[in-house]
Amino acid sequence: MRPWIVPVAAALLLAALPAVLTPYTQDLVVKIAIYAVFALSLELLVGAAGLVSLGHAAFLGIGAYVTVMATGDGGGASALWLLPAAMGAAALYAAFVGALSLRTKGVYFIMVTLAFAQMAYFVFHDTKLGGGSDGIFLYSKPVIQFGQTVLLDLDRKPDLYYTVLAALVFTYALLGLINRSRFGHALAGIRVNEQRMRAAGYTTYGYKLAAFVIAGALAGLAGFLLAVKDGAVNPELLSWHESGAVLLMIILGGIGSLRGAVIGAMAFTLLKELFQSEALLGPLAGHWQLTLGLTIIAFVALLPKGLIGLKARLAGGAHA
């Protein structure tokens, strides 16, 4: 089977889903798709380049905050400049963080990225810039308008749904192209043996920095969509909890696979919704972090290659 058939079929299915979805399930699909974009952005660092970042939520939060702050109170801003502004701000901070943190390796790289993310978190949490711990609200959603004709209004649920779907398709296709390009092959070589790549003449620092900036920009895209969907932002978007959650998504789905990142985002979001449901679990829903953590540990122990490896695991069991 050609590798593009399943993603294209999944995109067509998602495009047709609003006809049968309830408002709640449509909102859930939008949430999953946004987190899939976020997980795919980290997959470029962890899966392709072998760079485990624990501060990736900073770029998500910056993209979200820039969306709300740049909109202001003057009515719906144009998505044509608001989206590039959100992605550009996240990419700019990623360039700054990457330029310094990529001079370290291993656990030091993890800790430095976490430190930069916490710095960004406290800028929005402890100052009036981002409304403190309460955050700020987005009073009017972005639009695309020519004259009196409104082509896109993200306050309308169908417009938001298909915009998020388009963003997911764009991100998946872009990373698919990157993985197959010379740039992607260089990142794979760096992940396997950076010293050998350097000896072969590759400027590995430049490749890693470029991947870091692209991943930051894509996380900013997810932040833009999340701010538009929720209509509000708060510092928790930049917290280390959010960085840990997106790392768990790609581990749960299977590191090194774009499909795994999407499946992991879907599984993590659905499990979180399930364990937070008081209607299903009663008082246990108040301890959803415990049940979610135990479930993820069980998944990782039983499926070390992630949910993407489930088919091969079942096939192996059937042949045994």
The strand order across the widest sheet is: 1-4
Residues in β-strands, percent: under 5%
Structural class: mainly alpha
Poorly predicted spans: none
- Give the helix tally: 13
Mean pLDDT: 91
- Helix share of residues? over 70%
Q: Quick one: overall form?
A: globular
The sequence of SSEs as H and E is HHHHHEEEHHHEHHHHH
Instruction: List how many beta strands DSSP finds.
Output: 4
Described by strand count, sense and barrel closure, the largest sheet is: 2 strands, antiparallel
Distance between the termini: 25 Å
Radius of gyration: 20 Å
Write the SSE topology.
Blueprint: H1 5-16, H2 23-48, H3 57-71, H4 79-101, H5 106-125, E1 136-137, E2 143-146, E3 149-153, H6 157-180, H7 182-199, H8 204-230, E4 232-233, H9 240-253, H10 258-275, H11 278-281, H12 288-302, H13 310-319
Antiparallel strand pairs: 1-4, 2-3
Helix pairs in contact: 2-6, 2-8, 2-9, 2-10, 3-4, 3-5, 3-8, 4-8, 6-7, 6-8, 7-8, 9-10
Tell me about this structure.
The chain is mainly alpha-helical. Helices cover 71% and strands 4% of the residues. The protein has 13 helices and four strands. Strands 1-4 form a two-stranded antiparallel sheet. α3 packs across α8 and α6 (157-180) crosses α7. The longest helix has 27 residues, at 204-230. The chain starts with a helix and ends with a helix. The model has no long low-confidence stretch (mean pLDDT 91).
